[in-house]
Every structure is written in C-alpha cells, then in structure tokens.
Specification:
Layout: E1 7-16, E2 28-36, E3 39-43, E4 53-58, E5 62-67, H1 70-76, E6 83-91, E7 94-102, H2 105-118, E8 127-128, E9 152-153, H3 195-203, E10 209-212, E11 231-236, E12 242-246, E13 252-256, E14 260-262, H4 280-290, E15 296-300, E16 307-313, E17 319-327, E18 333-334, E19 340-341, H5 344-353, E20 389-398, E21 401-408, E22 412-419, H6 426-436, E23 447-451, E24 458-462, H7 469-475, H8 477-481, H9 484-503, E25 516-518, E26 524-526, H10 538-541, H11 555-560, H12 565-580, H13 592-601, H14 613-622, H15 633-647
Antiparallel strand pairs: 1-2, 1-7, 2-3, 3-4, 5-6, 6-7, 8-9, 10-11, 10-14, 11-12, 12-13, 15-16, 16-17, 17-18, 18-19, 20-21, 21-22, 22-24, 23-24, 25-26
Helix pairs in contact: 9-12, 9-15, 12-14
Bound molecules: adenosine-5'-diphosphate (ADP).
Adenosine-5'-diphosphate binds near residues 396, 399, 517 and 528.
EC number: 2.7.10.2
Protein name: Tyrosine-protein kinase
Enzyme class: transferase
C-alpha cells in the first residue's frame, strides 16, 4: 500500500480491459487509480480500508504516455468515452497498452502531465498507435502487425518539466469541465509569439506558463508583483511555495505559488464567479452578505466533477437557490434543457442575458474576495523584523500571552502573539517555526514567521477577523443551532486542515474549538498546531496538570501521554461535539478526575440536542478506545462529506 506522501495523483477513471488473454471480451470498468513515484496502481474502490488492488504498472517499464483516439473507443462501447489516453509499458518482453478515460480534458491533461513527470527519466518511444489493437490490426492505421512501431509521433519526447504535482490542495485541482483550456494535441503546444513559444523554438523544452489568480504586491526585494490574469513564465519551481517567474517585461522574481495556476489548467479559475470548493453553506452566507438580486457564484458540487450554480434572489423573500449544472449526451452544459452551451462560461453568459427558467437573470458576483495567505511573508523568510510591524488593538489573551492585531510593512494584516517569557522552549520553537511556515492549507492558520531576536518573542500569523471558533459558536448560538448544515460544514473544514497535517505527519496535540479561528466568508481554520510540544509549563504538559486538556484526551494520552494523529482524532470528536452544542463545555462541570474515570470506563459524551444520528455516529468512531480503531482524518473527511450529501441537498 502506498504511503500517503508518495501519492502524486489519484482518482477514478474508466479503464479498458487489457485483453492479455486473447479471447476475453473487451470491457470498460470504473477503477480508482493511484499514481506514486513508483507505480500506477488501480483498485476496485477508493475506501482505503476496503479496497482491493486490481492491477499495477511498475513505472520503470513505461515507455509511452499519450492521448488516444476517441473514435476507436466510442465504436466499441456505449459508454461515453471522451478523454482517452494511453500508457504503454513492457512486461516480460511483451508490449502492453493501458487505455484510460478521464472525466474531462483537464483531468486527462493532469494525469498525462503527472505520469510523464514521474517517468521523466524513462526512455520513451518515438512513435505510437493512437488507436487500439483490435486483435487483428491497429484501429488507427490498420497495420496488421501488433509489434509495428506506431503511426504517430509521440509528443512526450519533447516534454520536460521539473514540477511533480504535489498533494497541496491548490495543485490537486478539480476538473474544470468546459473551461476554455488548450487541449493537448499531438505536436500542439504554445501559441506562437508567447514567451513560451520562443523558448520552445530554441530548445524544444516547453516552459511552464502560469496565470495570476490574484494581485500580489512584492514588498521584499527579490519578489515580483503579480497582476491578476497576467501570464508569467516559470523559471524555477523547485521550492514548493515560492516560485521564480518572469513577467512579460522581462522582470524576474519570486511569487507565492498559490497565487498562480498553470495556464493549461486554469479552467474556470480565471472567472470572478468561480469559487472553487466553497460549500453550499458558505456560498449562502457569502451571497446573503452581498444582498444583491441576481448575485451568483459557481462552485464545485459535492458530487465530484460536477458544478453547482448558487443564485441569490429577493423574490418572494431573500434566499439562495442552488442549481446543478448538468450535461447532456453531447457533453453540452445546461441549467434548463432548452438552453445548452458548449462550455460553462458560455452557459453563464447566456443566463446573464436570459433568466431562462432561473429565479433571476445572473447579474453580479461577489468581488474583492480575500486572497489566500502566503507561506511566509516572502521566499525563505521566517524571521520578521519587529520594526516592520505596526501593532493595533488586543485580540485576546491566552496562556502564552497577549495576541494583538497588526500590519506588516503597512500592508498585510497579521496577528501577533507575544509570548510570555519562560512559557516555552524558545530556541527549539524557533527552529520548528522554519518548518511550520511551510505548512500551507486553506484550513490552517498560516504561520508567517517569528520575531526571535528580542524578548518576548513574537509569533506572527494570518489574521482571522472573527476570532476563536469557541467564542464564535457561543456568540451566534441562536442562528447556528438551527443550521446543522453550517455546523457540519465547519467540521468538514477543520477535518480538511487536519487531514493535511496528518498527511505531513504533523500532530496537533491540542485540538479544540478554542484553538480554531474563524475568518471572513465563514472560513474556519486550525491554529496553534504543534505548539504544545514547546510549552514549558508542567501544568499544561503533564496529564496530571491543571491546564492539561483532559477533556479532549483519549485513554492512551491519559495513561501513557502517547500522542499521535489518532489522539488528534479523539480530540476532533470532542471538537465536533463542541460545534454541535454551539460551544458547551464537554462533560459539563465534571472535575478532571471524574472525566478520566468516565473515559477509562468507556463512557462517552452524549448526543448533542438536534444533532443528526449520522453525525453523532461519526463522533463515536473518533472515541473508539483503541487508537487503531479510530478512522484517519482523510477517511473521516469522506464520511462527513457523505453524511452532508445524505442529509442535505447540494
Ligand atoms: P490560547 O492560548 O487560549 O490558545 P491564543 O493565545 O491562541 O489563545 O489566542 C487568544 C485569543 O486571541 C483567541 O481566543 C482569539 O480570540 C485571539 N486570536 C488569536 N490568534 C488570532 C488570529 N490569528 N486572528 C485573530 N484573533 C486571534
């Protein structure tokens, strides 16, 4: 089984049977594919614990990764085959071809790119057959020798890229169907005249061209400003979070990699109205907050690969309507069957001029949406000069000291935690901070850096305007308690952040609602991860201490102080309970010793009032006495999404 951090890409695709045995009929099956740096493996499903391996290709044997001919597939079967590609490889001296069908042009492109990247050092073939081997001849050129070298030139021969798709969310993009991307065509590539084309002519190497998704103002020397929608050529993408790029005036510098998207993959992300994987609940809050008739967004539906239009109307009363964007058999998109368009942007354009059965014509979409935090305030920067920080009001105070709102170099909002002297082992933490600035996820509070030269040391993080989740839940109890969907969405967001930490083998050790923060557009993020390790106070670190988070601790932590991602899972269950009670104290007024007694006996928290049974069942799984029986965050996230699909309409 692949280790999580080895996984380059995974997802469902339809696979054509390989016909290794001569007389078995051709069939097409949906399989879950996982690409690591070693192999392409396919399974019967995606549930980690249950899946069975159905086949595997050792990547060292791969010699071809190319687009396949659509027509030859379509003739064979009634299922829709639109985006076929093939992987040629050798096994026991015999050539085989695996034919795969992606769900969209962009998905195919990403798979091909990832496969070619992981096979970059392989000796690739010059020619290949685009069609299938029918048993008698090649469907493309009608050649009757199975071993003939191929009828079309491979384009992978000229493909070189240093970038291997990683697991961070912005790289693991969804399949922006219908977006106006350039399809991969044999021999195709850059548009003449672009910087990309010039370089290609020179060296036959296709450089990566990215498009800015947000404006970015370079503050530190060596960085480069980005202008939304402008194109940049990537010079160096060897670091995960800061890439060196060149603009079209020839200026070069570092930019945050989460502010750009590869041109070929940009898809819907170039449009103001596309909000990516924003949930139904968050899109409702956003549109209600805008309060404009006809204000709309398009978001990824909770059903993978589909899109939903969320539209605000005041008629007959202010509310948000959600419409699935459907596709007909000709792969056209529609909201009402009478008005079909070849792409989603075309469809949106149509409904901007005609309501066509919608509650309102599409008029505006929310603008000035916040740009994401960057991993550190510049490339390789984690030490922050305190003179560059302007400190404003106090946001709160915790056991480490006071937290104040601030601005870095007069332009970036930050929160500054001023660590009380003697509360933490500072040198160790400062070392760790260098690593922590590199952890980046939409649902983690970004660590920007530290001011470590003076005392007290400052920890500088992303500013979250609505403060701690615990206070937020308590303050908005009235409106939140009647909106189970919103509560579930908060849990899913936290789970996504935790799944990222789990993937990076990072243990939080103090996960609780008080350590999560709420930002604009109801985004929820996990804060203070890993900090507990550097606390010097015995009362906090020892399970007998008065400040130890006993109520969030599983038996193995209480008994042996054994922390793991699975102890985080237990705490996460308690956090879910806090969310669904809108901030009640777990175990009420019970003393710590009484809580320990209960937990040892296996007595768990009660189902919060109004909480769905399915949701409580998930909490209970987090409280399995043995850590091995608890699910992983990755698995938990899928379960939560399934529950939200089951009990809520998307
Ligand atoms: P604790 O030590 O209890 O975990 P913290 O020291 O992290 O608390 O923070 C104390 C309070 O300061 C929080 O409850 C929150 O209201 C506020 N706060 C902390 N970090 C931020 C931030 N990044 N953005 C906005 N408010 C924050």
């Amino acid at each position: 089984m692949a280790r999580r951090y080895d996984v380059v890409r995974e997802g469902f695709m339809v696979k054509r049977s390989q016909n290794k045995k001569r007389y078995t009929p051709v069939n097409f099956k949906q399989r879950f594919f996982q690409l690591t740096t070693k192999a392409l493996t396919y399974y019967d499903n995606d549930i980690f614990e249950k899946r069975k391996e159905k086949g595997r290709i050792n990547l060292e044997t791969v010699h071809t990764v190319e687009v396949a001919l659509e027509t030859t597939f379509a003739e064979e079967n009634t299922i829709t085959i639109h985006y076929p590609f093939l992987v040629g490889y050798e096994e026991c001296g015999q050539d085989y071809t695996l034919y795969l069908n992606a769900h969209s042009e962009l998905e195919r492109l990403e798979w091909i790119k990832c496969l070619r990247n992981v096979c970059a050092s392989n000796k690739l073939k010059d020619k290949y057959h685009q069609g299938v081997w029918t048993g008698k001849r090649w469907a493309c050129c009608k050649e009757s020798s199975r071993n003939s070298i191929g009828c079309v030139n491979c384009i992978s021969r000229t493909f070189v890229s240093s970038h291997i798709a990683d697991e961070s969310d912005h790289n693991k993009e969804n399949f922006n169907q219908g977006a106006q991307s350039s399809p991969i065509m044999p021999g195709g590539g850059a548009t003449p005249g672009t910087p990309s084309a010039k370089l290609k002519e020179k060296s036959m190497i296709r450089p990566k061209v990215v498009v800015a998704l947000y404006n970015y103002k370079a503050i530190e020397t060596g960085d480069l400003s980005l202008e939304k929608n402008a194109e940049y050529e990537v010079i160096d993408d060897s670091q995960e979070h800061w890439w060196k790029v060149r603009d079209n005036h020839g200026n070069t510098g570092f930019i945050p990699s989460n502010y750009v998207k590869e041109k070929e993959l940009i898809g819907l992300q170039q449009y103001e109205w596309y909000v990516h994987d924003m949930s139904r609940q968050r899109s409702e809050s956003l549109l209600k907050h805008e309060d404009k008739e006809g204000c709309f967004v398009v978001r990824n539906s909770s059903t993978k690969g589909l899109y939903t239009l969320s539209l605000y109307t005041k008629v007959p009363h202010p509310h948000v309507k959600h419409y699935h964007i459907k596709q007909n058999s000709r792969a056209e998109f529609y909201l009402s069957e009478k008005h079909c368009c070849s792409s989603i942007p075309d469809l949106i354009n149509y409904h901007k001029h005609n309501s066509g059965g919608l509650a309102s014509r599409l008029k505006t979409s929310p603008c000035d949406r916040p740009a994401p935090a960057t991993a550190g305030l510049s490339h390789d920067k984690w030490e922050i000069d305190p003179h560059e920080l302007m400190l404003h009001d106090e946001l709160g105070s915790g056991q480490f000291g006071v937290v104040r709102r601030g601005k870095w170099r007069g332009s970036i909002d930050v929160a500054v935690k001023m660590m009380k002297e003697g509360t933490m082992s500072e040198d160790d933490f400062i070392e760790e901070a260098k690593v922590m600035t590199k952890l980046q996820h939409t649902n983690l509070v970004q660590l920007y850096g530290v001011c470590s030269k003076n005392r007290p040391i400052f920890i500088v993080t992303e500013y979250m305007r609505h403060g701690s989740l615990l206070n937020y839940l308590r303050k908005h109890e009235q409106s939140l308690s009647s909106n189970q969907g919103l509560l579930l969405d908060m849990c899913i967001q936290i789970c996504k952040g935790m799944a990222y930490l789990e993937r990076h083998n990072y243990i939080h050790r103090d996960l609780a609602a008080r350590n999560c923060l709420v930002g604009s557009e109801n985004i929820v993020k996990v804060a203070d991860f890993g900090l507990a390790r550097y606390v010097l106070d015995d009362q906090y670190t020892s399970s007998g201490g008065t400040k130890f988070p006993i109520k969030w601790a599983p038996p193995e932590v209480l008994n042996y102080t054994r922390f793991s991602s699975k102890s985080d899972i237990w705490a996460y269950g308690v956090l879910m309970w806090e969310v669904f009670t809108c901030g009640k104290m777990p175990y009420g007024r019970l003393k710590n010793t009484e809580v320990v007694e209960r937990v040892q006996k296996g007595i768990i928290l009660e189902k919060p009032k109004g909480c769905y049974k399915e949701v409580f069942d998930i909490m209970r799984k987090c409280w399995s006495p043995s850590p091995e029986q608890r699910p992983s965050f990755r698995n938990l996230k899928d379960q939560l999404v399934n529950v939200s699909q089951g009990i809520l309409v998307d």
